[in-house]
């Protein structure tokens, strides 16, 4: 029996490398070099959990269901928006 294929969201994968971001593998390598042993799957899980916390408030604001939280958190457009907001906020 073959292994199931991975899921690709309709808007792409949830890393924003095109915008100057880091891949999960790059994040894991950086964290490991700083003394925190990490694999790329752990980097993804941590990032998605953080995005879920932000998405929860936004989904509540727009009366979206709880099932939409993971979809929103994994969307690269949402992550890119959060990243640009954090960059903009740090310049103030």
Keywords, separated by commas or semicolons:
mainly alpha; 92 residues
Structure description:
This protein has 92 residues and is mainly alpha-helical. The protein is 59% helix and 0% strand. The chain is built from four helices and no strands. Helix 1 (24-33) packs across helix 2 and helix 2 (40-61) crosses helix 3. The radius of gyration is 15 Å and the shape is globular. The model has no long low-confidence stretch (mean pLDDT 83).
Brief sketch in words of this structure:
The protein contains 4 helices and no strands. The chain has 92 residues and is mostly helical. The N and C termini lie far apart (55 Å).
User: Termini distance?
Assistant: 55 Å
Beta strands, count: 0
Shape: globular
| Unreliable residue stretches | none
The mean pLDDT is: 83
What kind of sheet is the major sheet? none
- Our count of helices gives 4
Helix fraction bin: 55-70%
Report the radius of gyration as a whole number of Å: 15 Å
| Class inferred from helices and paired strands | mainly alpha
**N-to-C SSE series?**
HHHH
């Amino acid at each position: 029996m073959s292994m199931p294929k991975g899921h690709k969201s309709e808007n792409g994968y949830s890393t924003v490398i095109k915008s100057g971001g880091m891949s999960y593998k790059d994040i894991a390598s950086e964290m490991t070099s700083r003394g925190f042993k990490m694999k790329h799957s752990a980097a993804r899980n941590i990032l998605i959990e953080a995005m879920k916390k932000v998405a929860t408030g936004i989904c509540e604001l727009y009366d979206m269901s709880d099932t939409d939280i993971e979809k929103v958190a994994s969307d690269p457009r949402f992550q890119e928006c959060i990243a640009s907001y954090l960059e903009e906020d740090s310049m103030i």
